[in-house]
Specification:
The complex is a heterodimer of chains A (651) and B (186).
Chain A (H helix, E strand, L loop, with lengths): L1 H7 L3 H50 L1 H5 L3 H9 L7 E8 L4 E5 L16 E4 L3 E10 L2 E11 L1 H53 L13 H49 L2 H12 L6 H32 L7 E4 H20 L2 E6 L5 E4 L1 H18 L5 E10 L13 E12 L18 H7 L8 H11 L3 E6 L6 E10 L5 H4 L15 E5 L3 H13 L3 E5 L2 H7 L14 E5 L1 E2 L2 E2 H11 L3 E6 L4 H10 L3 E4 L4 H16 L3 H5 L1
Parallel strand pairs in A: 7-9, 13-14, 13-15, 15-18, 18-19
Antiparallel strand pairs in A: 1-2, 1-5, 3-4, 4-5, 6-8, 9-10, 10-12, 11-12, 16-17
Helix pairs in contact in A: 2-5, 5-6, 6-8, 7-8, 7-14, 8-12, 9-10, 10-12
Chain B lengths: L1 H22 L13 H15 E2 L12 E6 L7 H6 L3 E2 L2 E8 L10 E4 L7 H8 L5 E4 L11 E6 L2 E7 H6 L3 E2 L1 H6 L1 E3 L1
Parallel strand pairs in B: 2-4, 2-5, 5-6, 6-7, 8-10
Antiparallel strand pairs in B: 1-9, 3-4, 7-8
Classes of the chains: A alpha/beta (651), B alpha/beta (186).
Chain lengths: 651, 186
């Protein structure tokens, strides 16, 4: 039984071999057994017949010896038995039953029957014994006794055994040969099918087909299998096609989303710029100033919403790039608090406190993205804290648990984390919504913002940014109306901050030009172009506007060589122009004469910035344009222009 | 018939035993007369009937007896009578005749020439020449003097010596088996 169980798991090839081997072995064994039994009977029969004849001959020959009491003669007659290997012992008894002669001559008497028994023969395990009467002319003279060895029979059986073994081995070899042949006809097609099935499951290649060898059950199986493969392949192809369609549609959607956001934001740039200028105008009456501030707030809100949508889109596509530098987190935090906390706090009568206990404050981050996180958290805190409440910001160091894996990229990491905790006394967060507030478009996030406006994307964007930085963000609240605490955790690094990041812009500083610049503004969006022109002219610069590359090249008249003096000091160009890229324009103009360039673009990824710099722009400004930043850049250019320029002087 | 034969065989067996005992020199039965060797010689005389073939004209019919004649003094006593009693060879019963004179020898098949006739062996043999009579004796030079079969003592054993020439001329056929156990004189 066990054998058959173990046979069950053997490959078909082996199974066939075993079956054929078993069959042939059983046949050989059966044949051998029958042959041996038959041979044994024939041998015994022949032996009995031979012995009977021998007894008759000896008996007949020994009559005279018995009759005339010649033991010597009888002994001689018996010694002729030496020629017969089968006869082991023999004796002649006289008519009174005494031993008259024996063979071999020195055979001890006790090895012979003391008295002749009934005539006849019998076999036992190892010998044949017989008695026969000795008569002469009908007169009983004595008895002959013969004892034959069956050794010869067993010797013959041994030969048969060897022959059987030989036949067995030969038939086994033959059987294996046959099994090989059978295997080719039966198991080969099955094995091929198995290979095909393996290929299909491993490589998902549905184009392979099993080869049909005949029209038997295996052939039918092959047909069925091939048909199944064909259907599976067709279904799979359809699935892949629809998947491809889906992917394409999704990409289209993403692209459309990006373009839409960009287009939505472009009109806001001139509005914000104008509002910013009007706010600084001391001649305007207070009532108008309030209206203008309302306009700025709402436009800024709109811009923020669009920015959030753009960011979410980038996060979903995995296109959110980081431009990381070593930064002192205190500078970022001060900047964010200056923009939001202090102003808003003053308006809503919210106490705003900072508790700085951290000694290691340097982190390796993208400053603008990190600022965005702080803005989000502070904005939320202000939004949800009622009048007379308090916002407290705590900055402290904490030793990282040693079990936490360190990020492999930043080798300068110390084992100290920097934690920024922003707590408010606002409406708090219900425990059941707490786990969901970082998920975009979640019900919890939405309901929290329902009465406050906004899409509630800030927290999920913040979480994505923190995760990209290898840090974390978490929220805690003791319950409804008990306030909320958001914690941002970053790895600290040892190092000095880069100076330009620390130089936070002062929002209300007036632009004072050290020197008048000639500026060529290239922008196809007419309102934006006009807004630029007004702002620049108000700052005392000369401005010419162009709406295309062609037009810009017409204006940029260059005095002929060898002087090659440019008509403009600075080119401010949008990158997406109707007749090409602003980078192309920059490249062309830079070949003609020394001119500085500022690129204006809706895209601000590292790749975008690098290709702008490669084209010859010295700065890349992302929309919506931060007017303060633009003014700073122009200031720098003007300052450089007052100094002698050896590179251009020599040219 | 079988019963008869068996009783005969049993009797013979007993006889054989006593012969053997007497040959070995022990006279347990206390029979001094006749000499014990004649017990065995009687059996030999009977046995000659089994190993010698007579020509058909020696018998008047198939049931005619084989006659064993003793010429001269009988040395056998009752041994020979006891030996052949009830026995048959090839369907011929056996008969013992005691003969005093040569003229008494008529339809005799085996003739034992007693020691008392030893002086006249040549005459007897000459008289029987050409007749199918097996002459047997146990005297010196029996064969040399023309006798056919001589019984002689050799180390307490009885040996048979055969003179083939007269046997052949008498028309008798001696079995080769007998010749094998006998000394043949040519």
């Amino acid at each position: 039984m066990k054998f058959f169980v173990s046979l069950r798991d053997l490959p078909i090839k082996r199974k066939l071999t075993v079956v054929v081997l078993l069959t042939s072995s059983v046949a050989v064994l059966l044949m051998g057994s029958v042959l041996i039994i038959y041979e044994r009977n024939v041998f015994r029969h022949e032996l009995a017949a031979n012995m009977t004849v021998l007894a008759q001959i000896i008996g007949s020959n020994s009559t005279a010896a018995l009759a005339f009491d010649d033991r010597k003669n009888a002994q001689e007659i018996l010694s002729a038995l030496l020629a017969d290997a089968e006869v082991r012992a023999a004796a002649i008894y006289d008519r009174t039953g005494n031993v008259f002669a024996r063979y071999p001559e020195n055979l001890p008497l006790d090895q012979l029957p003391a008295q002749p028994t009934d005539h006849g023969h019998k076999f036992d395990r190892h010998q044949f014994v017989m008695f026969a009467p000795i008569t002469q002319q009908g007169t009983r003279l004595g008895t002959i006794y013969l004892q034959a060895d069956l050794g010869q029979m067993y010797a013959r059986f041994r030969v048969y055994g060897l022959l059987l073994l030989f036949v067995g081995v030969c038939s086994s070899l033959g059987a294996m040969g046959m099994a090989w042949q059978l295997q080719r006809r039966i198991s080969q097609p099955i094995l091929e099918l198995a290979h095909v099935a393996t290929a299909v499951s491993e490589r998902h290649d549905y184009s392979v087909r099993g080869k049909k060898h005949g029209d038997d059950e295996i052939g039918q199986l092959t047909d069925a299998f091939n048909e199944m493969l064909a259907r599976l392949g067709a279904a799979n192809a359809a699935l892949a096609a629809s998947e491809e369609d889906l992917r394409f549609a999704n990409k289209e959607k993403d692209n459309f989303f990006a373009i839409l956001s960009h287009e939505l934001r472009t009109p806001l740039t001139p509005v914000l710029a104008t509002v910013s200028v009007l706010e600084g105008d001391p001649t305007l009456p207070t009532s108008v100033k309030e209206d203008i501030e309302m306009i700025r707030r709402n436009v800024e809100l709109e811009a923020r919403l669009i920015d959030d949508l753009l960011d979410i889109n980038r996060i979903v596509r995995g296109k959110l790039d980081l431009n990381r530098q070593v930064v002192d987190v205190r500078a970022l935090l001060e900047h964010a608090m200056a923009s939001y906390c202090h102003v808003a706090a003053a308006k809503k009568n919210i106490r705003c406190s900072v508790e700085m206990t951290a000694t290691e404050t340097h982190v390796f981050v993208d400053s603008s993205r990190m600022t965005q996180v702080f803005w989000n958290l502070l904005q939320n805190a202000v939004k949800f804290t009622p009048e007379g409440g308090a916002i407290s910001v705590r900055v402290f160091n904490e030793h990282r648990p040693t079990t936490a894996p360190t990020a492999p990229n930043d080798g300068e990491n110390s084992l100290v984390d920097l934690v920024v905790q922003i707590s408010d006394t606002g409406m708090g967060i219900a425990p059941e919504t707490l786990p969901r507030i970082f998920r975009a478009f979640e019900q919890g996030a939405r309901s929290r913002h329902a009465s406050y406006g906004g899409l509630g994307l800030g927290l999920s964007i913040s979480r994505a940014i923190m995760e990209l930085h290898g840090g974390s963000i978490s929220a805690a609240s003791e319950g409804k109306d008990k306030g909320a605490t958001f914690s941002v955790r970053l790895h600290t690094v040892k190092g000095l901050p880069t100076p330009q990041v620390v130089a936070a812009p002062s929002p209300h500083r007036e632009f004072i030009g050290d020197r008048k610049l000639r500026v060529l503004v290239v922008e196809d969006h007419r309102d934006t172009a006009d807004q630029f022109a007004r702002l620049l002219q108000r700052a005392g610069h000369e401005v010419v506007c162009a709406s295309s590359i062609r037009e810009a090249q017409q204006y940029a008249v260059v005095t002929p060589a060898p002087d090659r003096i440019c008509a403009f000091d600075v080119l401010i160009s949008d990158l997406d122009l109707p007749d090409g890229s602003g980078r192309e324009l920059m490249r062309n103009l830079a070949q003609l004469c020394p001119i500085r360039g500022i690129a204006i673009s809706g895209h601000g990824s590292r790749d975008d910035v690098e290709s702008s710099l490669a084209a010859g722009f010295s700065h890349h400004v992302t929309k919506p344009v931060d007017w303060e930043k633009l003014k700073t850049v122009l200031q720098q250019i003007a300052a450089e222009k007052t100094r002698p320029e050896p590179a251009h002087a020599g040219a | 018939m079988a019963l008869l034969k068996r009783t005969g065989a049993a009797r013979l067996a007993g006889l054989f035993m006593s012969i053997l005992l007497e040959i070995s020199g022990t006279d347990l039965l206390g029979q001094a007369n006749p000499a014990p060797e004649y017990q065995l010689k009687a059996v030999f005389l009977y046995n000659f009937a089994q190993f010698v073939d007579w020509p058909p004209q020696a018998f008047s019919d198939a049931q005619a007896p084989i006659v064993i004649g003793i010429l001269g003094d009988d040395p056998f006593g009752s041994y020979l009578d006891e030996t052949v009693r009830g026995e048959k060879v090839n369907g011929h019963p056996l008969v013992v005749q005691r003969l005093r004179r040569l003229s008494d020898v008529k339809a005799v098949h085996v003739l034992f020439i007693s020691e008392s006739e030893s002086d006249r062996v040549e005459q007897i043999v000459a008289a029987l020449r050409g007749r199918p009579v097996l002459t047997v004796g146990d005297t010196e030079d029996f064969c040399a003097r023309g006798g056919m079969v001589r019984l002689l003592n050799e180390k307490n054993k009885i040996r048979v010596r055969i003179n083939l020439e007269p046997v052949k001329s008498a028309g008798l056929a001696v079995s080769s088996k007998l010749l094998r156990v006998a000394d043949v004189q040519r």
